[in-house]
Design brief:
By secondary structure, the protein is α+β, with helices and mostly antiparallel strands. Helix content is 27%, strand content 22%. It binds zinc ion (2 copies).
Length: 73
């Protein structure tokens, strides 16, 4: 499961795991549908404490992430 940071994705307004609004980073996460991205704070990113992406959200997140990377089908 890839957990690299990505420069191409728009940052969310708060950490998806703990809700903090400071020191946010965007990380790539692997899902059943491909690679998606999530916004988390630096602390959660370091702990690997990433919010799970639901099955239905995953497909949308993966599609959105493709557009972030300029890989629009
Ligand atoms: Zn957090
Ligand atoms: Zn993305």
């Amino acid at each position: 499961m890839a957990r690299s940071r990505t420069r191409f994705c728009p940052k969310g307004s708060e950490c998806g795991a703990c809700g903090r609004r400071r020191h946010l980073v965007v990380v790539e996460v692997g899902t059943d549908f491909g690679t998606a991205c999530e916004t988390v704070c630096g602390g959660c990113a370091e702990r690997g404490d990433l919010p799970p992406i639901g099955v239905f959200a995953a497909a949308a997140c993966v599609n959105a992430h493709r557009t972030h990377l300029g890989q629009v089908a």
